[in-house]
Request: fold
Amino acid sequence: MANLFYCKYCGQHNFSPQGLTCGYCPKSPTKKHQIYAGGSKPEYICKFCGFKSRTILSLTSHHCRSPHKYHEPL
Reply:
């Protein structure tokens, strides 16, 4: 199974870190994808409000009280 790299702001994924970080991310403060360093988990929790989700994509697609207005995984 290949490793996937995920954006911590939008949940987008890519097979290489370079392929991910060169892309545009509308939810990131820098407008570039940022690699999520937490690894694969059965459940992701928002570090700002505690909301739980089974995928990063699902977690980051909902609004939150975080500074950038969306959930961000721990």
